[in-house]
Fold this protein.
Amino acid sequence: MSEGQSFSHPGPGQLDFLLENIPSGWIIRVLPRDLPRSAYDFAGLATPPYDSPNPILISTDFAFRAQDAIGWNPRRFQYFDSAEKMRQAVADYNLIKASGAKPTAEQSAAMARLIALSAAASPAIFTILDAHLIGGTGDQFVMAAAVASHFSTTAHVVEQPSGPHSSPLGKITWMRFRLEFPAVDTGSHRSCIKAP
């Protein structure tokens, strides 16, 4: 799949998997099939940390270079498998986000519930099988180095930038991947999505 494109596919149960195009790459979304899309998705709140580098974000955000984003492979994340768990997570997350300088006891309790919900969420594994990228020229940030250890073992092609200037972060221009849902896999049935 090429930059600028999104990909969707039925996921487990009544959920759909979406690899959504964003300006800096892609973000993994898990959405309920029969409900309107809300501000949060079933993977985003089930996979902390929030508002920081996160395995559902395959991009050059948070100062990750393109090669760092590809090198974070495979990516393990969680998703909520029911609307009820998601409703509880949204309520707790909204309560936490309303905090001031010092969290209240109610907000601390909401954080504890959200962490417990996330820990019990269903697992998924996103593996980049092959990628094309324009490498970033900037120095690797410490947070990227901590997770981007598989760049040399992930199939990839480094492309030359089309313009005269290089970029500190680069960009991912194409990707082929596999997504697995181990919680619903059984001996004769594997919930695996491959694209393209």
In short: The radius of gyration is 18 Å.
